[in-house]
Write a structure and sequence with these properties.
With 89 residues, this protein is mainly alpha-helical. It is built from 4 helices and no strands. Helix 1 packs across helix 3 and helix 3 packs antiparallel against helix 4. The chain is globular, with a radius of gyration of 14 Å.
């Protein structure tokens, strides 16, 4: 892993921690302050952290992260929505 990748992963983890600790409803404000980190890498990291929580008796945190990751993926066009046509491979 390159130093830049490691630094980005660290930034993702810091952002995830902020989201997990923030008061309910302030998540959009936190995300707005970190727009440079909202990308497919963040969504992948959130999914990995959610899987960890799901397997380590923290289903609420896992559900929360999956929900946020799904919403971000929709905004980035990475997650199909019912009104979005499926791309045939």
């Amino acid at each position: 892993m390159t130093e830049a990748t490691q630094t980005r992963e660290s930034l993702y983890m810091d952002l995830i921690n902020q989201l997990l600790r923030c008061p309910n409803g302030s998540e959009p404000d936190i995300l707005d302050h970190h727009l440079d980190l909202i990308d497919a890498g963040l969504i992948q990291t959130m999914s990995q952290v959610a899987a960890y929580f799901a397997h380590h008796d923290n289903p609420e945190a896992a559900q929360f992260l999956i929900h946020v990751a799904r919403e971000l993926a929709k905004q980035l066009g990475l997650y199909p929505t019912p009104d979005q046509p499926q791309v045939e491979a």
